Amino acid sequence: MLIAILRRVGLSLIIICLVAVLVFLATEVLPGDALDVFLTSDDLMTMEAEDIEALRHEYGLDKPAVERFWQWFSGVVVGDFGVTFIDKTPVSDVIWDPLLNSLLLATVITLIAIPVALAIGILTGYYRGRKADSMVSSLAIIGYSIPDFVIGTLLIMFFAVWIPIFPALILVFADASVLELLKVSLMPAVTVIIGHVAHLSRLLRVGFIEAMNCEFVERARLSGIPEKRIVFRHALPASVIPSLNSMALFIGNLLSGLIVIEKVFGYPGLGLQLLEAVDKREVHVVQAVTFLGAVLVIGMNLLADLAIIILDPRVRSHKHE
User: Fold this and answer.
1) Closest to 295 (Cα-Cα) out of 17, 83, 35
2) How many Å apart are CA 52 and CA 34, to the nearest integer?
3) Pick from 79, 106, 138, 222: CA 20 to 30 A from residue 32's CA?
4) 83: helix, coil or strand?
5) Confidence (pTM)
6) How many CA atoms lie within 13 A of 196 on its CB side?
7) Residues 6 or more apart from 70 whose CB is under 8 A from it?
8) What is the pLDDT, as a whole number, of residue 320?
């Protein structure tokens, strides 16, 4: 088991390094360099060539690409993503509050979505083939098929325009308190939950049905074990294991998937900060947000793999591990 864990950790570190290379190259393949992307056509017309070269030297853009990548990546390892072009503010200071806000929203979504998906998956799997199963499954397919921005717009129409319970647009700053953010995070959270709970519950339903049809469940029933204990003590853990990777992907993709939702509601998170950085041509901010989103996905997949290794004896005893 230790070898399998070390192998997964080593593979994740390699993938993170490859992601860093890809994120850096994504700006290098553009015509010109980061300064050309930042400067507008009016800036290029009014500035002298010597001034542009001085700026390029100031930001280290006149160095070879390999040297610039190593300087950027060595800073990323210690949390230094460089400075912004406009006001030379450290990128880590720019994205810190939006990152915390997005993590708060992602935590709220996770704490609601996972238990709801588990409950729906267990109920529909246990009562499979019945009218309730068909109804819930149909609603799940509909919810999964509707894009998040459509669900968000409908919620705004219902609960902000027609029934003014919640504000149509979130008007809090990025450095707002946790309590203020929690008050305005319900509709964005519900928007994401409606679409993604449907997918997770379908996966859990399939896993639960397979677990309930296994031999160990039949032996438990023949031994006289109560049905409730069979469901929660034996079938449920076995049904969750195949869905761990999907749950990890769901949690890991929340930061990148919240971009549209944060734009729709005006939530001051990392997605909204990324859109503003693209609009202002702040390449360093775009690099930082993209890299952090990829690292989160890789980290959540690593945790899911480690959980599977620990919980599933078949993986621990596999000869290739």
Assistant:
1) 17
2) 12
3) 79
4) strand
5) 0.79
6) 26
7) none
8) 45
Cα separation, 278 vs 209, in Å, equals: 46
* Residue 99 · residue 293 · CB < 8 Å: no
Task: Retrieve residue 47's tokens.
Answer: 């500035």
- For residue 81, the SS3 value is coil
- Considering the four listed CATH numbers 2.30.38.10, 3.20.20.140, 1.10.3720.10, 3.30.70.270, the one that applies to the domain covering 96-280 is 1.10.3720.10
Reply yes or no on whether the pLDDT at 151 is more than 80.
Answer: yes
pLDDT in tens, 176-201: 888 888 888 888 888 888 877 887 88
Residue 42 has pLDDT above 80, yes or no: no
**133, HSE (Cβ side, Cα atoms, 13 Å):** 14
Burial of 225 (0-12, 13-18, 19+ CB in 10 A): middle
Within 10 angstroms of residue 92's Cβ, the number of other Cβ atoms is 17
What are the sequence ranges of the domains in the chain? 2-77, 96-280
pLDDT grade, residue 14 (50/70/90)?
very high
Q: Is 90 helix (H, G, I), strand (E, B) or coil?
A: strand
pLDDT(267) > 90: no
Q: What is the pLDDT of residue 321?
A: 43
How far is the CA of 6 from the CAs of 38, 115, 170, 273, in angstroms? 42, 31, 44, 35
pLDDT at 15: 92
Asked whether the beta carbons of 82 and 91 are under 8 A apart, the reply is yes
SS3 212: helix
Q: Which of 321, 320, 303 is nearest to 252 (CA)?
A: 303
